[in-house]
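Reviewer comment 2.1 asked that we show a complete input and output for one of the modelled complexes. We chose the flavin mononucleotide case, as it is the one discussed in the main text.
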Amino acid sequence: MVLYFSGTGNSRYVAQKIAEISCDDVISINQRLKAQDYGRISSDKPLVFVGPVYAGRLPRVMDEYIKKVNFTGTKCAYFIGTCAQTPWMTVEYVEKLCKEKAFSLLGFNSVVMPQGYIAGGGTKPKEVNDKILKEAEPKIIKIAETIRDMKMLPKEQPGKAMMSKILNPMMYAMMISAKGFTATDKCIGCGKCETRCPLNNVKLVNGKPTWGKECTHCMACIAGCPAEAIEYGKKTQGKPRYFLGEK
Ligand SMILES: Cc1cc2nc3c(=O)[nH]c(=O)nc-3n(C[C@H](O)[C@H](O)[C@H](O)COP(=O)(O)O)c2cc1C
Ligand code: SF4
Ligand code: SF4
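Response of the prediction step:
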């Protein structure tokens, strides 16, 4: 069973590729969180978790979801982190999670994908993103084939501790908030931002989105808006939106 959490589509893309090559089923953690569905998940094949790296760890909401759910059948798990540069020490936190869940870890690998954090590190032009995606493809296929063959993923050298240990809690305390989001006059009231938010943090009021206090900075609302009508303070003005998949 392949389970993914994804804001701008990178992890969903990788998860779908793995599922296709390993002939497995896919579950969207976004949809489960949205429905507050923490029901049991049973799988005979190894569990494959795919998610973005947020300041050197998996997103807290993904970690919390995995902790809450009862997984039956297999106890073997793979973890894949998509990132824009490096996963830092994500592997250390994945190992901790596996210990807590009594999972037998068959490996953690990272895949460098286009930067999706428009409200944080910014985004790159389309040509750059296309090149990054092309370069990522062989690694995604290799990972998927290793999972299909139920082999261990090759060990990757973990990055420095600074981001995962020190900056991660700082980022959650100081940066991760929906306060900066606003909708401009370009909004056509389609409701996709409300539908896409995995935490039900976006609500349309009189046809325009409003944001609540539950936000994990996944960027699904701003990046997936078909009218590019969402801004995050001044940080996002004039910046290209990155979203992999249909808007
Ligand atoms: C809140 C946040 C924090 C991030 N931190 C990191 C990081 O520490 N290292 C990195 O390489 N990329 C980082 N990124 C970039 C994402 O990991 C990358 O764009 C990822 O592929 C997005 O996956 P998704 O499209 O499935 O949401 C961060 C993105 C966000 C939104
Ligand atoms: S996705 Fe964009 S256009 Fe659609 S309601 Fe939200 S802000 Fe408006
Ligand atoms: S409000 Fe936007 S950025 Fe925050 S969790 Fe919802 S979709 Fe993601």
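The pocket of iron/sulfur cluster (ligand 2) is lined by residues 183, 187-193, 209, 225, 227, 229-230 (CB under 6 Å). We note this here for comparison with the apo prediction described in Section 3.2.
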